[in-house]
């Protein structure tokens, strides 16, 4: 028979575990961090190269250009390697699907309202804004990669291609800066979401408020696992 203090310790551990939900695996966080660092390196070096007020501060312009080019070509690498992760592939599927409540999330001004401790919309693991941001980021990486390749290796391309690539690359850089700034602003405003990306875990109450559909599925899966575990324990006791 377990000692009372042992049961108390187990209960405390269960209570602590039940407060948190696993949101991102280590592989998913590594992919995000690597992509973010490469993107920031591209944006900073681009600003040093193209903005007059900053370009005068750079003494070794060729080195900055080399860093910019290599970081740009490396941008898709973490994502491609991430396809080896089942959790990452599952999240890509979620980001690529728009459900009816996602369109409603975009239309409603009270999309973040909470009733009874839960969000009023059954938002999944990612809301519509996060899905649009992921789609834009993926598209921007591909366009930047293509135009950057033309600018880096201009010989096979005609003047119209080179001029068009430069125009698109430069203007898309400004759009990416604005979107990245907005993404960082939203992340810093929501410390629980930031904690989820840093540690992989989020508070269950936060999940219910901001991602009610995802939190409800977790609760259903947990209850199902508990029933299966109880059934297995019962069969074990009957056989013993």
Automatic annotation (TrEMBL):
Membrane topology, record value: Multi-pass membrane protein
GO cellular-component term (any): plasma membrane
Coiled coil: none
Domain of life, per lineage: Bacteria
Ranges where the Cytochrome b561 bacterial/Ni-hydrogenase domain occurs: 23-200
Organism per entry: Actinomadura meyerae
Keyword Mitochondrion attributed: no
Subcellular location per the Swiss-Prot or TrEMBL entry: Cell membrane
GO biological process, one term: formate oxidation
InterPro entries: Cyt_b561_bac/Ni-Hgenase, Di-haem_cyt_TM, FDH_cytochrome_b556_subunit
Location, primary (coarse class): membrane
Keywords attached to this entry: Cell membrane, Membrane, Transmembrane, Transmembrane helix
Transmembrane regions listed in the UniProt entry: 36-55, 67-88, 132-151, 171-188
Alphabetized Pfam families for the sequence: Ni_hydr_CYTB
Region (Disordered): 215-240
Name the record gives this protein: Formate dehydrogenase subunit gamma
Keyword Lipoprotein: no
GO molecular function, one term: electron transfer activity
